[in-house]
Amino acid sequence: MEYIRRKKLYSAANEFYTGRKLYDIALDYDYETPAGFYKAFKSVFGCSPSRYKNNNKIRSNIFMNIDNVKTIEELEEVGKFFKIIYADLPTEYEIEEGEKYSHDWWIEQFNKNPELLLYAKDDDKICGAISGWIENNNNVTVGGDGILKEYENQGIHEALFIELEKRAKKIGCNGIGLGIGEGQEEFYAKLGYTGSMLIQSEKHSVDDLKNFLDSLKNKNYEITATNIYDGYVHQLWLRVSILDKELKKKFEEELGNCWCQIIVGKSI
């Protein structure tokens, strides 16, 4: 219930910039009176709705100036931001032209759905961003998301996801999915995402992976799919709790020669 309440208030906050009246926004988000909306808003953002609207920056340090990329120059600015967040990955210019995540591929996504390429700015500085695209199954895949370290724990990351969900739903998408890293489980669980685990190995067969899974006592994991990728990468898909960190550890450390990835998703 707390998550739903906060999600509604974040969405309502974005309505302020449309010029709509506070009374109308409050009614749309199920508040019977402006006073009730005012009280709920202040409890989350630490200031009144009017102060939030006039200053663009929440006094409790939650910054909500979120917009989507509108020009190629902004797209490249977001690309530079992600290079800071993912410093160990190749830049879009280092990927062969036409391949996924290359510079021309991102321009193609920009031309298709710029509303799914979002950033948060503190004055003129990008402090967070999230980039998504639509797959053939009409779901959105998030290919990159992150916040600068000095802006962590201020609600920006959550706000970016809520805005992405809102925009994806508006254009008729079914859901959102992405792979997450270790230590991010709690964040996505709070946002209402559920998980599956992809276990991959070039050494162990699918049957080997299944047999090891069966050897884990008192655990009932549902196998949702198996696959052999490129003819040599054996894959096992499991439905798991996002917060189950022990399974990944067992495969990677006890069985060995495995790589595990938590994939989270959410219907919208």
Structure explained in plain terms:
The protein is of the alpha+beta class and about 270 residues long. Helices cover about 40% and strands about 25% of the residues. The chain is built from 10 helices and 9 strands. Strand 7 and strand 8 form a beta hairpin. The protein is globular, with a radius of gyration of 21 Å.
Helix content: 25-40%
Question: Topology as H/E string?
Answer: HHHHEHHEEEHEHEHEEHE
Beta-strand share of residues: 15-25%
The strands making up the biggest β-sheet line up spatially as: 1-2-3-4-5-9-6-8-7
Please give the alpha-carbon distance between the first and last residues: 17 Å
Number of strands: 9
Q: Compute the gyration radius: what is it? A: 21 Å
Quickly describe the structure:
With 268 residues, the protein is an alpha+beta fold. Helix content is 39%, strand content 25%.
Task: Provide tags for this entry.
globular; 9 strands; 268 residues; nine-stranded mixed β-sheet; single chain
SSE layout and pairing:
Elements: H1 2-15, H2 22-28, H3 34-45, H4 49-55, E1 66-68, H5 72-85, H6 103-112, E2 117-122, E3 125-134, E4 140-147, H7 156-170, E5 175-180, H8 185-190, E6 194-201, H9 206-214, E7 222-229, E8 233-240, H10 246-255, E9 259-267
Parallel strand pairs: 4-5
Antiparallel strand pairs: 1-2, 2-3, 3-4, 5-9, 6-8, 6-9, 7-8
